[in-house]
Amino acid sequence: MPPRGLLPLGPYTDDRLFHGEKNIGPADPMILDSVVFIHQGQQIGLDDILGFAQTQEMLMAGPIFFKGSMLLQNEHWLSTLGWNMLKKDLEQQDRRSYSEEHFSRKFHAGIKIFVIGRLHAQPQFLNSDHVENGLRFQARTPEVAEISGYKKDKWTRWYEVASLHLSTYKNSRKFLEKYHIQKFILDACKSDDAPPLKKDRTMNWLVDTYLDFWDSAAEEKKGRRPCRCDVFNFFARHCEDILVNWIAHSSPLSHQVWKAFCEDVKTSKKMAAREKSSWGEIPRPDWIPEEENQEDQDDDDTMSVELPEHPAHTYIPSYTSSHHASPSPPPRTPSPAQSPDPDPGPGPARSSSPTVAYNPRAHSINPLDVLPKTFWEAPTVPDCFVWRCLIVYPDTNERCHYLVHLLKPTQKDLGYLAKEDQAFLQSKRWRLDDERLAEVFATLTSGHYREHMAEFGVAAERDARGRVSFKWLEQRGRDLRADDAMEVD
Hints:
The protein has about 500 residues and is an alpha+beta fold. It has three domains: about 10-170, no CATH class; about 175-275; about 290-489, no CATH class. It has helices spanning about 15, 50-60, 80-95, 100-110, 165-170, 175-190, 205-215, 230-235, 240-250, 255-275, 290-295, 410-415, 420-425, 435-455, and strands at about 10-15, 30-40, 40-45, 65-70, 110-120, 125, 135-140, 145, 150-155, 155-160, 385-390, 390-395, 400, 405, 460, 470, 485-489. The strands form five sheets. Strands 1, 2, 3, 4, 5, 6, 7 and 10 form an eight-stranded mixed sheet that branches. Strands 15-16-17 form a three-stranded antiparallel sheet. A two-stranded antiparallel sheet has the order 8-9. A hairpin with a 5-residue loop joins strand 15 and strand 16 (about 470). The longest helix has 21 residues, at about 435-455. The protein is elongated, with a radius of gyration of 32 Å. The N and C termini lie far apart (about 90 Å).
């Protein structure tokens, strides 16, 4: 055997190295490691050749080359020219001469080489006996040429990829995610628990199945458990590409169900673009909960997508105030029918906050002056299904940790709503641009904001003419004075 630690021989072009009289088919392919793709002198990834049309367009602009290492163990693959090149390089490396008999024995142990070739078509993933979940692609020489005494006309060579180069992985995330989603859907629809009818295989069923799959394989994974919004976001990034692929081929899901999901994704992406969020794209976390709050907080309450901090529009009815010139209106105060007890039940974990942040007995201070500035940033329906309270306590500079998950509301969230609104929210038959959803969300967040007002010792009341007045909580029993209450027309 050659001494260990030596670099692979080559690189060699596959059309000169391998045999020209017969093709190397998919039943006995060549296995590559550390593969890179190059187009017009630039290194590219699988994301650049994600679709068939995109691949053909690039091939018209110039050939796409691949390079990888392989363990050569079959001498019958070699052409006469390839045999001579390999033997010469091996003799130079080992500094000894080889007879054909000794050289042939080398193949039983394997000879590591670098190979360069031309990509013929878009790579595809598959399951095979050679590489589990490996990448497969085809190399073909397009022109007729004469090499080492053989005339070749579109020789075909099949390769399977055991690993990609690190730089190739970096530019192949979308390609690999798309394959992962397609494989998961196929496996989920083949399981015994799958609904027999395609129309019953809804997106909610698919998300639940994905989370069940994650839980069943949790021991093999590290990291936090994804929430439902993460999974919807994961599917949304590739829904259109998968729909186009499955329209041309048989699909395990209903085209109507998947097409409706694609329409919802388009709407959500437009909202995300307006609010500078990343829903439906590669997520970039904007906020990570503090470690001390993670033990008490449910995994489903965390998000891996960007949470909009400065909403561009609001669904909450606006008020005007001569005291604050902020363009963002205060939250709407819910009606008594929609406002249950201040503590309706357990909710998401949140950090401890002062009962009253400022002294309410200082009657010379206007009640509105004690509310933090973030109180006037009206909440909007989140494009990523999860909203986090914007309130920041001025004395500790801590942000409230209250979360609202529209796809998984807690008992505390539902406690702010009337029964018919609870049923509407839990049905999940709404769209993000639904006007009723905006009203339900406004009622829910207003109930939480009302609790913040109580923490600061401030109350809000609405009279018959719709005017809202703010006052100190402990002064409800007497008439308001001009210096400790304020009316908003």
